[in-house]
Amino acid sequence: MKHTKKMATPLASFGSGAGLGGKISHYHGNQNIYKQGAPAYTLFYIQAGGVRLTTRSNHHAPAVTAILGAHDFFGELCLAGYPLRMSTAVALTSSSIRTIKKAKMLKMLRQETKTSNSLVTYLLSSVKNYSDHVANLLTSSAEQRLARVLLRLAHLENNGRSVAEIPFLSHQVLAEMVGTTRSRVNLFMNRFRKKGYIDYDGGLEVRQSLRKALRS
User: Fold this and answer.
1) Are 43 and 96 in the same domain?
2) What is the CATH number of the domain that holds 47?
3) What does the pLDDT profile of the chain (216 residues) look like in tens digits?
4) Do 103 and 186 sit in the same domain of this protein?
5) What is this structure's pTM?
6) Which residue of 2, 160, 165, 191 has the fewest C-beta atoms within 10 A of its own C-beta?
7) Sequence-ordered strand ranges (E) for the chain
8) Is 4 within a domain?
């Protein structure tokens, strides 16, 4: 997603997340973390791996509403008093995720100004990311949406790194995220690789040059 101004990120503010307390759990790829409609008493911080959020409405297939990577929060709507989960959270790959009780986080926000300011900055950035996500679904090609998903998972949207590695995701999973077919994702990934935007070496290496695909 594009930003006009670089904002502080949880990566800088929370690091490993150790200061947040809570319990670390491990999930395998495609494992549910919680389901839409479940009680919401906790929020989550991704230590490693990735998560996709999907929302289902009556008579419609689930829609992917967010793609999250390491050092992102999710489930934070419980802090605003939402009693139930508004989406389903599924691990994209093997992931380590810290679970933080709502009451503990609210106490930290009241007592620790630095934590409070960092989380507010993150939440404001998330609101903008969601708005951009909706706009991109309406205006971008499937190839551009795939490029944005990969850049988002690699945290290369707005930082100075030239390359980052993410766990390899099946083309079927990527197709579900992007809203296209597996065969088209295969076509786009081969095109990205030939142009030097990505590479495979155990995981999936994503390069900053992939941003050029957003202008195609």
Assistant:
1) yes
2) 2.60.120.10
3) 333 333 334 444 566 677 788 899 999 988 999 999 999 999 999 998 889 898 888 777 777 778 888 888 999 999 989 999 999 999 988 899 999 999 998 888 888 888 788 877 877 777 776 667 667 767 789 999 999 888 887 877 665 678 888 877 788 888 877 888 999 999 999 999 999 999 987 778 999 999 999 886
4) no
5) 0.72
6) 160
7) 23-27, 32-34, 42-48, 50-55, 63-69, 73-74, 88-91, 95-101, 163-166, 198-201, 203-207
8) no
- Expressed as residue numbers, the domain containing 144 is 140-215
Helix %, strand %, coil % for the chain, to 5? 40, 25, 30
Q: Could you please report the per-residue DSSP string of 136-173? A: HHHHS-HHHHHHHHHHHHTT-SSSS-SEEEE----HHH
What CA dihedral angle connects 83, 87, 90 and 96, to 10 degrees? -40
Residues in the chain: 216
